[in-house]
Amino acid sequence: MSRRGDDPAALAETLRLLHGMGFHRWAGMTAPERAADGSVSVTIKAEGEAVMPFGGLHGGVLTGLYEFPALAALLPELAPDEWAVTADVHARNIGAVRTGDTVTITGRLVKRGRGIAFVEAEARVSDRLVGRASITKAIVPSPDVLKPG
Question: Would you state the pLDDT for residue 145?
């Protein structure tokens, strides 16, 4: 079975499309970086409309940002005609993100099965853990716009 990861150009184009979504742009998310272990990291700076009036990143913004790097870590394992949609999210924001902090969010594939995948993401400010999410993805047919070629 071929995988999206077998075609680096197509994988890069899919990531470019996803990264360009309005929420990601609004949050100021950096382009994803894939590490040798397959994890994918992005960063944001806690500033602008994402910051609460009394200071600090809104927890809902951070919760929403776990999805992209977690999906990006799974993408290379999907076949070109497969996609993954979120079935369940458990997010825990466990530390404050102060105004001006740079947050790194890293997604990892835990396990990919035939019809379901488990991914996780964690958020850090420097070496300090500020949040973690466990996400279950259902494997579904790929929308035409996301099929390579």
Answer: 64
Distance CA 67, CA 121 (A): 8
How many structural domains compose the chain? 1
Has residue 147 been placed in a domain? no
- Whether residue 121 lies inside any domain: the answer is yes
Q: How far apart are CA 40 and CA 33, in angstroms?
A: 5
- pTM for the structure as a whole: 0.91
Task: For residue 49, tell me if it sits in a domain.
Answer: yes
110 CB-near residues (< 8 Å, 6+ apart):
117, 118, 119, 120
Name beta bridge partners: 43: 104
Is residue 55 a part of any domain in this protein? yes
